[in-house]
Amino acid sequence: MNTANNLASFLNAYGYAEKAIPVLQYVNGKINDNPDILSNMATAYYNLGDMNNAALFASKSITKDSLNTNANKVAAFVHLNKASATNNNQPEQRNSNDDGESCQYCK
Predict the structure, then answer these.
(1) How far apart are CA 18 and CA 41, in angstroms?
(2) Is the pTM of this model over 0.90?
(3) Region labeled Disordered — which residues (predicted)?
(4) For residue 90, what pLDDT is reported?
């Protein structure tokens, strides 16, 4: 099963995340909740843009192995992605300049 997980990891690395997910689902069915498999699933979903599943599988992997670097990286990027999406929807605030005067954009 380690070979199948490695294959899925290579598929992820070379841009074939959609092909990696079925392999990882099969392996996860045989070796239930292995943190390496879960982190590879998180990476595959992240590469496909599915942030909800990426966060879910990263969280499951981190629960099993809190030091799993791949899962922690995916979790961090998912949070960053969500934060930047939230901040982009808010109007940009302009502050006063160092002199205490209102900046040219605040008028």
Answers:
(1) 10
(2) no
(3) 84-107
(4) 59
Cα angle 18, 82, 7 (rounded to 5 degrees) comes to: 25
| C-alpha span between 43 and 76 (Å, rounded) | 12
d(CA 80, CA 37): 23
Q: ∠ at Cα 23 (76, 53), nearest 5°?
A: 30
**What region does 103 belong to: left with phi over 0, alpha with psi -120 to 50, or beta?**
beta
- On the CB side of 31, CA atoms within 13 Å amount to 13
Residue 38 is classified by DSSP as H
Indicate the domain borders of the chain: 2-72
Q: Give the architecture-level CATH label for domain 2-72.
A: Alpha Horseshoe (1.25)
